[in-house]
């Protein structure tokens, strides 16, 4: 009886192997041949799912995005009042505060660099940026809705600032985790959110 292959699971296996290669060896090494070697599949089997490196990278990045969204979506709201700590924890879903999120951020940064030289990835990069920006907008709007936020806050400016702070901390941590530790990132985020509140 022929073995039944779950094609979506196989694509995820290939994407996760792509992440591994990117983190350990750099994005330029994430070739179809190298990914095939890492997964134990043939080059032909990998090409069956992804015709090009760009297609493989695109799916790998979409998987990162989907996993972040899934974590955010499955967060359990507290039974009592929503606290500032709960809001900060939501923002931490996109900060590299554990091994899983650090891998995601390293892959994201490598992907972002690749976008500069691969026009086929621009559309996905823009979509992911906009999704992230909308997420930060919801954070600031939630602070306002709960009447935590100072009355004079400029919504658009604060969304831009929160996005820049999170991106900056993530990049600095990936590049120099001894200087900007996970604890310092969380402290900085909490400090910033508290500065927006009454």
From TrEMBL:
Residues 8-68 form the HTH tetR-type domain. Residues 31-50 bind DNA. GO terms for molecular function: DNA binding. Keywords: DNA-binding, Repressor, Transcription, Transcription regulation. The keyword DNA-binding applies. SUPFAM superfamilies: Homeodomain-like (SSF46689), Tetracyclin repressor-like, C-terminal domain (SSF48498). InterPro entries: BetI_C, DNA-bd_HTH_TetR-type_CS, Homeodomain-like_sf, HTH_TetR, Tet_transcr_reg_TetR-rel_C_sf. The keyword DNA-binding applies. This is TetR family transcriptional regulator. It comes from Oceanobacillus profundus.
């Amino acid at each position: 009886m022929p073995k039944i292959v779950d094609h979506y699971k196989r694509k995820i296996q290939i994407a996760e192997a792509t992440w591994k290669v990117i983190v350990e060896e750099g994005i330029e090494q994430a070739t179809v041949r190298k990914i095939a070697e890492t997964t134990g599949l043939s080059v032909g089997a990998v090409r069956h799912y992804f015709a090009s490196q760009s297609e493989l990278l695109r799916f790998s990045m979409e998987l990162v995005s989907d996993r972040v969204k899934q974590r955010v979506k499955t967060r359990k709201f507290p039974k009592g009042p929503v606290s500032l700590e709960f809001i900060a924890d939501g923002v931490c879903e996109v900060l590299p505060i554990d091994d899983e999120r650090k891998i995601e951020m390293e892959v994201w940064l490598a992907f972002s660099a690749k976008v500069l030289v691969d026009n086929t990835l621009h559309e996905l990069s823009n979509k992911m940026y906009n999704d992230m920006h909308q997420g930060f907008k919801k954070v600031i709007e939630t602070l306002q809705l709960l009447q935590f936020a100072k009355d004079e806050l400029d919504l658009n400016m604060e969304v831009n600032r929160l996005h820049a702070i999170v991106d900056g901390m993530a990049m600095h941590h990936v590049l120099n985790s001894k200087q900007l530790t996970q604890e310092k990132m969380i402290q900085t985020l909490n400090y910033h959110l508290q500065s927006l509140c009454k």
